[in-house]
Design a protein that fits this description.
Blueprint (H helix, E strand, L loop, with lengths): L1 H24 L2 E9 L9 H18 L6 E9 L4 H15 L3 E4 L2 H7 L3 H4 L3 E3 L14 E3 L4 H16 L6 E7 L4 H16 L4 E8 L8 H9 L4 E4 L3 H14 L5 E3 L5 H8 L9 E4 L10 H13 L7 H24 L6 H10 L2 E2 L9 E2 L14 E6 L5 E8 L8
Parallel strand pairs: 1-2, 1-3, 3-4, 4-5, 6-7, 6-8, 8-9, 9-10
Antiparallel strand pairs: 10-13, 11-12, 13-14
Helix pairs in contact: 2-11, 2-12, 3-4, 6-7, 8-9, 9-10, 12-13
Length: about 400
């Protein structure tokens, strides 16, 4: 009797192990590479983006991936926002990790990998706006926002209508650098917009300076003397701080328009003053970092409460949320349509090309996401949001859901 009982228990245990082993084996780990800058011009704000990326994947793994027998693993590589460093690291990243998606930081990554990714069959998602040199068909370096010129142009049209009452073109200047292709491209794009819309914008001058300038008072004086209405800075916090200090030294109050990665909160922090950029603006085709109770803000709070997100509510964090959510949803759609074992760079790219992601899917972080082989950025869903900083340092929404203008390719 004891022997029969032992045999039955052994058989049941063996059957249980036979059932559990395949179940465990079915959990698929899907690798993503995250490119970062902890030692270059974005070192002071990179932890915000990195924290947001990690929290989204932790949330997805528990709430979504566990039900699909899949888990996303992200490994971060410090490229120092340097084209040569990114190019040097890429072969090793590809061989070691075999990622199905790359989360890029910005223009240096796009410049380094744009030509390689189609051959490697690995898509890259960037939460920055698009660069002119990336606005080509059949790209695998995909931006979640339209070009910097589209965003600047949408802001200019709003500023002209609301601040100048549409009476004359906005006189606009830009601070940038020839040190990276992305920075130089921003000036070219703004010039392309102004040339196409002379009734809305007059391009005053592009101030070419270092990536991390010390004193640019003299060139900023030229912008002030020319009657510039707004100064566009879509590069980094160092150039924003240098421009603000120059304006303070000159006693001028020309509004600065920042992009998301060098936004109001980050630039004020770098300036050493919580309200250092009061009266200035931050604009981008993504959820804004105001205190408004939005779906994106509620999702952020949930990540704080349940998944230990430490990053502050700012543009850099939102960009990290956006690109990781876009990657997670693309992987999720691919799993649901083809199975976890079929998730490759190619299948994820195919999903990105054929799927129209809704704002609800993206937790309100973006108005939507749709790509096509002709345009490496959302073509139908992009809307601009604008925030400004008050004297008490509070960031509030100035305008939202502004349509994108037409901008000729340059």
């Amino acid at each position: 009797m004891q022997r029969n009982t032992f045999l039955k228990l052994s058989a049941a245990l063996a059957a249980g192990l036979a059932l559990s082993a395949p179940a465990l084996a079915q959990t698929k780990t899907i690798n993503i590479a995250g490119l970062a800058d902890f030692a270059g011009p974005y070192a002071n704000v990179m932890p915000e983006m990195a924290g947001a990326r990690a929290a989204v994947f932790e949330w997805w793994n528990k709430e979504v991936g566990s039900k699909l027998n899949a888990q996303i693993a992200v490994k971060t590589y410090d490229t120092r926002y340097d084209v040569a460093q990114t190019s040097s690291l890429w072969p090793g990243i590809k061989a070691e990790l075999k990622p199905v998606v790359v989360l890029g930081l910005g223009g240096s990554d796009a410049a380094a990998l744009q030509q390689r990714l189609p051959e490697d069959k690995i898509p890259m998602l960037l939460a920055t706006a698009t660069y002119g040199f990336g606005w080509k068909p059949n790209q695998w370096a995909l931006n979640l926002r339209p070009t910097y010129a589209h965003e600047a142009g949408a802001f200019i049209e709003w500023y002209r209508a609301t601040k100048l009452e549409g009476k004359r073109p906005v006189k606009v200047g830009i601070i940038t650098s020839e040190a990276t292709p992305a920075y130089a491209d921003q000036a070219k794009g703004l010039q392309s917009y102004a040339k196409a819309h002379p009734d809305k914008a007059t391009f005053v001058e592009a101030i070419w300076t270092e990536v991390q300038p010390t004193d640019i008072t003299l060139p900023v004086r030229r912008l002030a003397n020319a009657g510039t209405d707004v100064i566009v800075i879509q590069t980094n916090t160092a150039q924003a701080v240098a421009t603000k200090r120059a304006l303070q030294a000159l006693g001028k109050n020309i509004p600065i328009v920042l992009s998301l990665h060098n936004g109001l909160a980050a630039s004020s922090k770098a300036l050493g003053s919580p309200n250092g950029f009061a009266g200035d603006y931050e604009a981008g085709a993504i959820a804004d970092a105001s205190d408004s109770d939005t779906p994106a803000r509620r999702f952020y709070r949930m990540l704080q409460e349940k998944y230990g997100l430490k990053s502050g509510w700012n543009a850099m964090t939102i960009m990290g949320l956006a690109q990781s959510m876009a990657a997670a949803r693309a992987i999720e759609h691919t799993i649901k349509s083809q199975g976890a074992d079929k998730v490759t760079g190619q299948t994820v790219y195919d999903t990105l090309m054929k799927t129209k992601f809704t704002s609800a899917e993206l937790m309100g972080i973006m108005a939507g996401m749709d790509f096509s082989p002709e345009n490496p950025f959302p073509t139908a869903s992009s809307k601009l949001n604008i925030v400004t900083m008050k004297e008490d340092g509070k960031v509030v929404r100035a305008a939202g859901d502004i349509p994108m203008p037409t901008v000729p390719k340059w």
